[in-house]
Amino acid sequence: MHIHVIQDMSENTDNPINPAEALRILSEKIKLETTIIQKLREEVSKVIVGQKYMIDRLLIALLADGHVLLEGVPGLAKTLAIKTLSEAIDVQFSRIQFTPDLLPADVTGTLIYNQKSEQFSVKKGPIFANFILADEINRAPAKVQSALLEAMQERQITIGDETFFLPNPFLVLATQNPIEQEGTYPLPEAQVDRFMLKVFLGYPTKEEEKQIIRTNVQTGGIPSCKKVVSSTDILRARELVREVYLDEKVEQYIVDLVFATRMPEKYGLEALEPLISYGCSPRASINLALAAKAFAFLQGRAFVVPEDVRSIASDVMRHRMGLSYEAEAENISSAEIIRRIIAKVEVP
User: Fold this and answer.
1) CATH 3.40.50.300 in the chain, residue ranges
2) Which residues lie across from 111 on neighbouring strands?
């Protein structure tokens, strides 16, 4: 794989320098930037015990400029993890608690009439921040959830006849509880598709749970974390993530995985056809490529290998696929379908 990367880079680079040298320079740059990300990880780990999987996914989304939907039972530190990550980065943080009586204007802002000047002025809502924690996002009705659509995709908000650009970086980190369905509203498919990753959280291990008890009982509460990374550091790391090399064969592998959800019969997966009502959108391919680059970056590599794609595929694809009644009747999850696709589609 390494040799193939070097051969292909010689064709794609405009600079006449040795492609192996170009790869080495990029690797050195990545090593410098990963020390900053390691600092961030260590600072978050002071507050969050365990949950390495969740922290990794939050960092991937941060580096790949994508939004995250965290799903798990109450008490798994979903909200705390997002809040801690924003505290460790020198950015503006905003928390929106989604409730059934919330209005779209409570999220985006509204026009206020000033009687003295006899003019309308714009009052910006909490969405105008770098990190948005949309807590219990499925507690608010669809019209409120839809207020996030323009912000998440176009990174802008329209209030009245004015359009305002959102700050950079801009990240929506949403949580939802899967076990309590009373008084909740399923997210519109158009919004679910705008989340780069949907991450399911599990319970901590016994050792981690003991550490959680000690942290909360013996040391007098949750420790605080310091700001160790600036927004400029994050934007610089994002530029490097985009430079991570994606071989054409790995690109084809990504396309094959996504197309296997749309036309499973063409990949020898006829048994999956009645289980899928609709396949993944092109956003799955885009986000899978970006997330794989971010995953490689976190490993300190300057190029993507198929294992990077396989590691992140379920988190990128599971929420972009529609399950049929037959799949639900047989209790087959989207994660299980993706597992079968990964096992069948040929790896380059």
Assistant:
1) 32-242
2) 122
Residues 167 and 151 sit within 8 Å (Cβ to Cβ): no
Furthest CA-CA distance within the chain? 71
pLDDT the model gives residue 311: 93
Q: What is the pLDDT of residue 60?
A: 93
- Write down the pLDDT at residue 1: 45
Hey, which residues does 199 pair with through a beta bridge?
70
Tell me the three state secondary structure of residue 110. Answer: strand
The residues, ordered by sequence, that sit 6+ positions from 331 with a Cβ below 8 Å of its Cβ are: none
pLDDT of residue 199 exceeding 50, the answer is yes
pLDDT digits (tens, 9 = 90+) for 135-157: 888 888 888 888 888 888 888 88
Domain 244-348: homologous superfamily in CATH: Magnesium chelatase subunit I, C-Terminal domain (1.10.8.80)
Check: CB of residue 162 under 8 Å from CB of residue 121.
Answer: no
Every domain range in the chain assigned CATH 1.10.8.80: 244-348
CATH assignment, 32-242: 3.40.50.300
Residue 51 contacts residue 180 (beta carbons within 8 Å): no
Quick one: pLDDT at residue 191? Answer: 78
pTM for this structure? 0.83
**What pLDDT score does 4 carry?**
47
Q: Note whether 337 and 321 are within 8 A (CB).
A: yes
Distances (CA, A) of 140 to 71, 123, 193, 206, 231: 16, 21, 18, 35, 30
